[in-house]
Write a structure and sequence with these properties.
Number of strands: 19
Distance between the termini: 19 Å
CATH topology of the largest domain: Pseudouridine synthase
Structural class: alpha+beta
Largest sheet: 9 strands, mixed
CATH class of the largest domain: Alpha Beta
CATH architecture of the largest domain: 2-Layer Sandwich
Length: 292
């Protein structure tokens, strides 16, 4: 992927080319802003998909629930079968039930409405919690995307408090579940800075064998030193969604991760997206995610 022309306030570093699919490589750029002030989001055109409201022909109930951001259609079928959904005051357990315009749908004792799908890409900063709300009053990713146009939004997966980089947020429950499913093997590329030089023998171990952790063996899809950086800085490509897997992998070899930054998620990169800023995905990017 070719980067755009650099502006006078930013400096770009290239991360080693890492193959995403057999026979293909892509280059990811890290842009470091010299301005440390809190940035304001620069919106790109959002998806042109129209609001998902039932027309006169109607909308299947499971799809209606999914477009309300509750869950996927498959999970909605389970909720319907369990008698947890009411339409116009009556419990509906019929598969394939069609919601008509003007019908009142209630789930978990509250009325739900289908929303226009919203897809947000955030470059998460440190000291920010990946959750919709925090009982301790700490800053969350939701605080950073206020004004995005969605009344209900949730993160796809999570980054721990001290991990920075790309995080997708959406109200599309079906797509979120799809991206988080292990079978999809969604690629994620991290830039890792360790507390000391990473020994070549450990590099070979991770490339060939991997490590055995308390929850089972693990081997990254790709790993290498970052070009034009010291030997304590690595690029790591994985598809696993296991908790803190990158940090635990290096800890198992006696290293501490000092900095961890996700620079690519599902083919989406940090190009022109400084730390703390967000943008809407384009229709083409949304279509790309749905093809995974």
């Amino acid at each position: 992927m070719k980067g755009r022309k650099k502006d006078s306030k930013a400096k770009t570093k290239k991360v080693k080319e890492v193959p995403l699919k057999k026979g293909k490589t892509t280059t990811f750029s890290l842009k470091v802003s010299k301005n440390n002030s809190a940035p304001v989001s620069r919106k790109r055109p959002s998806s042109s998909l129209s609001a998902q409201t039932p027309q006169k022909a109607g909308m299947r109930l499971n799809r209606y629930i999914a477009h309300a951001g509750i869950c996927s259609r498959r999970q909605a079928d389970k909720f319907i079968a369990a008698g947890l959904v009411k339409v116009n005051g009556q419990v509906v357990t019929q598969m394939g039930y069609v919601v008509k315009e003007g019908d009142e749908v209630v789930f978990d004792n509250r009325r739900i409405f289908p929303e226009k799908p919203v897809y947000i890409l955030l470059n998460k900063p440190k000291d920010c919690i990946t959750t919709t709300e925090d009982e301790k009053g700490r800053r969350t990713v939701m605080d950073l995307v206020k004004g995005c146009g969605a009344t209900r939004l949730f993160p796809v997966g999570r980054l721990d408090r001290n991990t920075t980089g790309l995080l997708l947020l959406t109200n599309d429950g079906e797509l979120a579940e799809r991206l988080m499913h292990p079978r999809r093997k969604v690629p994620k590329l991290y830039k890792v800075v360790l507390d000391k030089t990473f020994h070549p023998s450990d590099m070979e171990k991770l490339k060939n064998e991997g490590v055995v952790l308390e929850d089972g063996p693990f081997k990254p899809d790709e790993i290498d030193y970052v070009e034009r950086s010291s030997k304590d800085t690595l690029g790591v490509l994985i598809h696993s969604g296991r908790n803190r897997i990158v940090r635990r992998m290096f800890e198992a070899l006696g290293y501490k991760v000092v900095k961890l930054d996700r620079v690519m998620y599902a083919g989406l990169t940090k190009l022109d997206l400084p730390r703390g800023r967000w943008r809407h995905l384009t229709p083409a990017e949304v279509a790309q995610l749905k093809r995974l």
